[in-house]
Amino acid sequence: NLQESESENKLDGETASDSESKSEFGGSPPVPTSDDTPEVLNRALSNLSSRWKNWWVRGILTLAMITFFFIIIYLGPMVLMTIVMCVQIKCFHEIITIGYNVYHSYDLPWFRTLSWYFLLCVNYFFYGETVTDYFFTLVQREEPLRILSKYHRFISFALYLTGFCMFVLSLVKKHYRLQFYMFGWTHVTLLIVVTQSHLIIHNLFEGMIWFIVPISCVICNDIMAYMFGFFFGRTPLIKLSPKKTWEGFIGGFFATVLFGLLLSYVMSGYRCFTCPVEFNNDTNSFTVDCEPSELFQLQEYNIPLVLQSVVGWKTVRMYPFQIHSIALSTFASLIGPFGGFFASGFKRAFKIKDFANTIPGHGGIMDRFDCQYLMATFVNVYIASFIRGPNPSKLIQQFLTLRPDQQLHIFNTLKAHLVDKGMLGSLEDA
Length: 430
Hints:
Number of helices: 20
Order of helices and strands: HHHHHHHHHHHEEHHEEEHEHHHHHH
Shape: flat
Strand content: 5-15%
Largest sheet: 2 strands, antiparallel
Oligomer: single chain
Number of strands: 6
Structural class: mainly alpha
Helix content: over 70%
Distance between the termini: 93 Å
């Protein structure tokens, strides 16, 4: 019996050290699962098998979530940022609750209070940086905001240091190891959730297309991989997710790349999606109006000779952004799912089915955003590496904060440079 028990543990990815850890921290019994499907759907689908019932429940609620996604896009950037903030808080709550329940942290003094305090500190730091970057004129106009902006990093560090001292003072004999374990749990959660949501907002300011296309590609891949796997899946893909199949993985890849090309073509023609989100100080509101960059202007490309005989065309007109969309959709299809596999491994480690039961048939909010956070980091790195150049408005903001003598020095240096280039002389002649 002992040998059978050990072999079962090994099959589940559990080692002896895991068992010792569980006994020390109070054990991690499986979280009981319950049918959280709405009663209306239960009655309507009562005659179907569990497999097809799950298919319809997931499908109906997926359509509902997509509809909600379109509504918040229509409501504008401010609502999108608010939703990102709400999702971040809910994801943090789900992960912290797992640690709190699985390791029976009920007797730890101040654990939950400190976890939420650290969340507040990190958000204050990141959102303060964002406000300073994108609302510089508004910040400089208001004296309290100007002071907060000037000493923002010092204030952020002081707030974190306060929480750190509170944690040290809360240490209790017999709970030292568990307290430090949960301290690390909180900080890893902050790294995964808060940092990524901050990057999502930065992507949004580059233009709503950089927010919508990546998120839509992940959603499309999730749906199409499920569809291909449901109807054609035969070959298991990875042990962490037994229901994932190679057929679903490959089918989702091709469907997502095609979807990304089509969605990018449609959205590239609208300024409200392609223009950077900027704050208008005159109206105190966000604006998305600009002259589209070269990324969003139709260009003519030569089709490779190998494909000319197949498609019958020599050239094709498309937006340069569509080429970038291939990189985004490829990442969403091939690397993005590993965020889901990581989450599956996390859930198997603690013997839970979902992070929560917020969305019937889908689990918690974190179950839906495990791939999105990985995608957000990639998009931010991709923009910084291949898209974004020097930002004139930010340079001017920094220039205006300098002393008059420093501004004059920069002016004279820039003037001499333009004269050497012959640009200033031609402007004076005109």
